[in-house]
Amino acid sequence: MKIISWNVNGIRAVEKKGELQKFLQNEDPDILFIQEIKAKTGQLSTYLTENPDYLQYYHSAEKPGYSGVGAWVKKAWLAKSNPGGPPKVETGMPGWNDSEGRVLRIDFEKFIAIGVYFPNGGKSEAAWLEKLEFYEHFLGYVNDLRKTGRHIVWCGDLNVAHNPIDLARPKENEGNIGFRPEERAWVDKVVKAGWVDAFRSLYPDEESYTWWHMISNARARNVGWRIDYFFVDQGDLHKVKSAPHINAQMGSDHCPLALEMEV
């Protein structure tokens, strides 16, 4: 099974550039989670809503042109791996008003996959506090799901670099949003709870990033941050075969990241 997560920073824009089509042809994911679609479903083309190869699901933000997540499931893979039919799809989290379109969950017969776009938290003090609250609520949510005995994979844009190796200029960014002690401590808490950062587990010393500041041309200089992740339960880590960053893929200020694992 090959799952890919990609913050596209506007799904219509990445389609218009032809980069989404190129990406699908090159990578052929079984499941694709998308963050920051920045559109309502009524604004999307038939390629994005009635694709012949994929079932497509979206959870848009109430605010136009903002946030939103999506998931695509390959029909051919689903027929082999989920013979009971289409998966169950849920949006949001219990006890959380997900008006910003941040959480999309897909229940397959053998496992649960969740795509998330975590808040940035940089707009105001209130936004910062809400980010921390979202972090805690989400961790409680996936911990409770795991207690049901289901196998779970979750991924997306966490909007935090965990350790100094995860950004090109850690000293210059100490205390900045995305690298604050409180955010990094939350990722420590995630790991302590038995969730494994697939990329860092497989490639402990690799300096590779998933987001670059576009205005400063940081991508050409590879001055980036690793803020996009895949997490699996510690007990399922042996099923993970690879977790690469697809750095060559253009079209967004983020690159896609993949997870190949046995179901």
Layout of helices and strands:
Elements: E1 2-7, H1 11-16, H2 19-27, E2 31-35, H3 46-49, E3 54-59, E4 69-74, H4 75-81, E5 88-91, E6 103-107, E7 112-117, H5 125-147, E8 152-157, H6 181-192, E9 195-197, H7 198-202, E10 211-212, H8 218-221, E11 224-225, E12 228-233, E13 240-242, E14 257-261
Parallel strand pairs: 1-2, 7-8
Antiparallel strand pairs: 1-14, 2-4, 3-4, 5-6, 6-7, 8-12, 9-12, 10-11, 13-14
Quick take:
This protein is an alpha+beta fold and 263 residues long. It has helices spanning 11-16, 19-27, 46-49, 75-81, 125-147, 181-192, 198-202, 218-221, and strands spanning 2-7, 31-35, 54-59, 69-74, 88-91, 103-107, 112-117, 152-157, 195-197, 211-212, 224-225, 228-233, 240-242, 257-261.
Compressed to H and E, one letter per element, the order equals EHHEHEEHEEEHEHEHEHEEEE
Give the % helix.
Answer: 25-40%
- CATH class designation: Alpha Beta
Kindly report how far apart the N and C termini lie: 7 Å
The CATH level-2 architecture is identified as: 4-Layer Sandwich
Structural class call reads alpha+beta
Count of discrete domains: 1
Count all strands and give the number. Answer: 14
Largest sheet: 6 strands, mixed
Q: Number of helical runs?
A: 8
Backbone CA Rg: 17 Å
Provide the CATH superfamily.
Endonuclease/exonuclease/phosphatase
Mean pLDDT: 97
Q: From the 3D structure, determine the CATH topology.
A: Deoxyribonuclease I, Chain A
How much strand?
15-25%
What's the arrangement of strands in the largest beta sheet? Answer: 3-4-2-1-14-13
- Characterize the overall form: globular
For this structure, the quaternary state is: single chain
* Low-confidence regions: none
